[in-house]
Write a structure and sequence with these properties.
Blueprint lengths: L17 H10 L3 H21 L2 H19 L7 H20 L3 E7 L10 H13 L3 E3 L1 H11 L7 H26 L3 E5 L8 H4 L7 E6 L10 E3 L12 H12 L1
Parallel strand pairs: 1-3, 1-4, 2-3
Antiparallel strand pairs: 4-5
Helix pairs in contact: 1-4, 2-4, 3-4, 3-9, 6-7
């Protein structure tokens, strides 16, 4: 397998189910070749990312993050090859992004059916997906079970008790958000049944230096849109080319 793809965003392009397709190709490699394949992926992404201007790196981070959310929303299986592909591809890209002084704040206001099946993604698979990729995953509804468990409630009582615990869970989520802001971490923040105050904490840093702030309140399907707020300067305080960012974003969204 030649891991030198045409563009850096090709490694995650959900229009062609790239994460699923490429991780399946990785899965076909004999065990003794897996590590060498992963090193090729890492080297290819590190090299490609290092060559990008700050403006192009920022735009690529937006595209990658949106594709990651779209991909996990239709996740049907999980195995070691998928985990290895996420960890290596996204982790390599993030290492360059963070070294340049940037962080992604991807904020999602999407509703989910309040049932075991409806919440299986936000509670079970989204945490595994994003954390494996090297991103913080913050969701009040996913924090609530730990608080309930501490008070002696079982998983079967989750939906019955959630209204009592969601306010406390949001306070905990806000604390995690604040820590991410202090440590310049990238994260996905999701509230599956938002209240007016749900996004005050993640939105508070949207104009902070180096922050690529993305807000999605449409379902993660092809053709849907989200709002993005690009940083105004690089880590050295030099202005970024906003016209270039906006022009390239417009091309990406058409």
């Amino acid at each position: 397998m030649n891991w030198q793809l045409g563009k850096i965003v090709d490694y995650w392009d959900q229009r062609v189910q790239a994460i699923d397709t490429l991780s399946r190709q990785l899965a076909t490699a004999p065990d003794e070749q897996r590590e060498a394949q992963l090193k090729q992926i890492q080297a290819a992404i590190l090299s490609r990312a290092a060559e990008l201007s700050d403006e192009d790196l920022i735009l690529a981070s937006f595209v990658m993050m949106d594709d990651l959310y779209k991909a996990v929303s239709v996740l049907s299986a999980w195995d070691d090859a998928l985990a290895d592909y996420l960890r290596t591809s996204v982790g390599s890209f993030l290492s360059v992004l963070h070294a340049r002084g940037y962080a992604i704040h991807y904020v999602v206001d999407n509703t989910f059916e309040q049932s075991t099946a409806g919440m299986n993604g936000p509670l079970e698979w989204y945490p595994k997906w994003f954390r494996t990729a090297g991103l913080k995953y913050i969701c009040p509804q996913a924090i609530a079970p730990d608080i309930m468990k501490h008070d002696g409630y079982t998983a079967e009582q989750y939906f019955q008790q959630l209204p009592r615990y969601i306010r406390e869970a949001r306070l905990v989520a806000n604390t995690v958000v604040a820590r991410c802001h202090d440590e310049k971490d990238s994260y996905l923040f999701l509230d599956t049944d938002s209240a007016p105050e749900s996004f005050a904490a993640p939105n508070s840093a949207m104009d902070a230096p180096g922050v690529i702030h993305i807000f999605r309140n449409q379902a993660p399907v092809q053709g849907s849109k989200c709002a993005v707020n690009f940083p105004k300067t690089n880590m050295h305080g030099a202005p970024l080319d906003q016209k270039k960012l906006e022009a390239n974003l417009a091309k990406q969204l058409t």
